[in-house]
Structure formats: structure tokens, C-alpha cells
Amino acid sequence: MLYKLQLFLFYFSNSQFMLHIVHWNSEKYASFSEAAQKPDGLAIIGVFIKGKQAPFADFDPSSLLPQSLDYWTYFGSLTHPPLHESVTWILLREPISVSADQLAQLRSLLSNSEGEKASPILHNHRLPQPLKGRAVRASFQ
């Protein structure tokens, strides 16, 4: 299957940080919107982030991935409404490193809807959900 990169999402709370690299099945579907509503429409690579010194000069997408590509995978849903059950999740086992300054810059981002005042993004994560019988597989032993 051919998946196209659609977007990067950063999620964080007071103590946890994660990068989602969102792809859609362009072989089967004409658009991201269509793919997001189908059971095999999306694949999201989740990368845990830990605070540490990490240079970030010229952008290279592979710099967003850790050295080890060991992962867990399961079928699940989007983390934001409409919460479609259309995602093949791929969570990398090893976190990547970003500096305290980079984390501070993420925390300084503002969000707003049309006509509303911009406000800091304090928490933009979804709490862990029950497995509900989902099988979680690992690429490693």
C-alpha cells in the first residue's frame, strides 16, 4: 500500500510529549478526508519525545525518528473528533530527544478558532483509552 504524508501533530501534557506523523492510504482513496472515514484509511507513526539537548539545524524528516525503529502496532481511532476508527497506529519504542528550549517553544504556541482570542495550548492530549479487545503487536521480542 502507498501512504502519503499528510501532517505532523505534537501532543503534550505536563510530563509527556508525543509526535504523530499522519499518513493516508492514497492507493485506495482519493483524499485524506475520504481515507479518514475508512477502516484502512490512515496510518499514524507515534514517536515519544523526551527532553534533552538535541541540535535541529537543517530540516531532515528522518531526524524525527529514533535510531531504533522497533515498534508496537494496533488498529485504533483518531485522537480527536470525530474519533473515526480508521487508524493503523505504529508507536516507536525509542523516544527522540528535544532540548528544553524546543519544548518551551512548543509550550509557547497559541491556538484559536475564528473570532476567538488566541490562548496558550496547555494540554492537547487524549487520555489513554481501554484496549477494547484490540490486539497490540510488536516488531521486537
TrEMBL record:
Its main location: cytoplasm. It holds the Pfam family Carb_anhydrase. One of its GO terms (molecular function) is zinc ion binding. GO terms for cellular component: cytoplasm. Residues 1-140 form the Alpha-carbonic anhydrase domain. Coiled coil: none annotated. It comes from the Eukaryota. Its EC number is 4.2.1.1, 4.2.1.69. It catalyses: hydrogencarbonate + H(+) = CO2 + H2O; urea = cyanamide + H2O. It is found in: Cytoplasm. PANTHER family: CARBONIC ANHYDRASE, CARBONIC ANHYDRASE 1. This is Carbonic anhydrase 1. It comes from Vombatus ursinus (Common wombat).
